[in-house]
Amino acid sequence: MKDRLKILNSEVEILREESSEKERSLTKAKHNVQVEINIRDNLRSFLSKQQLSLQQKKTELGRQVAEIEKLNANIDSLEAEMRKQRQL
């Protein structure tokens, strides 16, 4: 009976050690997951800022292209007027 009790105590101790090891492993895994979630969130934030910046630059580019087209039209009009004046 005493031997049986010793064996059971040893088994309980082994199970406790295994449980502690699994708990440490789980804690480490949870920490790693949290680190990865933070990295993901930072990357999403960075991507969002980059997309906003890209959209703003596209808008500015469109505005500048429209302004250039307007100025080119003015130049063409003035050149046509100058040609007309020379012919007179």
Structural class: mainly alpha
Q: Please give the number of β-strands.
A: 0
Categorize the overall geometry: rod-shaped
Q: State the helical fraction.
A: over 70%
Word description of this protein:
The structure is a single chain. This protein is mainly alpha-helical and 88 residues long. The protein has one helix and no strands. 98% of the residues lie in helices and 0% in strands. The longest helix has 86 residues. The model has no long low-confidence stretch (mean pLDDT 96). It is rod-shaped and about 130 Å long. The chain starts with a helix and ends with a helix.
Secondary structure elements and pairings:
Elements: H1 2-87
Descriptive key words:
about 90 residues, mainly alpha, rod-shaped
Question: Outline of this structure?
Answer:
By secondary structure, the protein is mainly α.
